[in-house]
């Protein structure tokens, strides 16, 4: 499985301090396992099957995209709990 980041998500992850960045990267790697690990919920109001992963005070919005034989884990957005859903 391949992991791709949106420009917005990559920029936010780069702005974090090292411990937070490591926690988020580890949580994203847990999404590639079968079944995915973590506190995961479906997001309402999206028809493309977006889900959110809770990592402490951070939320990771992601989606699985089929691309031929390889499945892609696409990280849509990463932000703090209060700002992610705006």
Question: What do you see in this structure?
Answer:
There is one protein chain. With 86 residues, this protein is an alpha+beta fold. It has helices at residues 7-15, 18-30, and strands spanning 2-5, 39-42, 51-55, 58-67, 70-80. A 5-stranded mixed β-sheet has the order 1-5-4-3-2.
Query: How do the strands line up in the largest sheet?
Result: 1-5-4-3-2
Number of strands: 5
Mean pLDDT: 90
Q: Over all CA atoms, what is the radius of gyration?
A: 12 Å
| Uncertain ranges | none
Q: What about the largest sheet?
A: 5 strands, mixed
- What is the helix content? 25-40%
Which H/E pattern describes the elements?
EHHEEEE
Quote the beta fraction.
35-45%
Task: Count up the helices.
Answer: 2
Structural class category = alpha+beta
N- to C-terminal distance: 29 Å
- Principal-axis shape equals globular
Feature tags:
86 residues, 5-stranded mixed beta sheet, 26% helix, 40% strand
How would you summarize what this structure contains?
It is built from 2 helices and 5 strands; from the N terminus they run βααββββ. It is of the alpha+beta class. Strands 1-5-4-3-2 form a 5-stranded mixed beta sheet.
């Amino acid at each position: 499985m391949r992991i791709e980041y949106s420009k917005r998500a990559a920029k936010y992850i780069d702005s974090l301090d090292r411990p937070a960045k490591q926690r988020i990267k580890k949580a994203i790697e847990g999404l590639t396992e079968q079944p995915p690990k973590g506190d995961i919920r479906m997001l309402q109001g999206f028809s493309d099957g977006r889900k959110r992963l809770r990592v402490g005070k951070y939320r990771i919005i992601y989606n699985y995209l089929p691309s031929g034989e390889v499945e892609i884990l696409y990280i849509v957005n990463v932000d703090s709990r209060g700002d992610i859903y705006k």
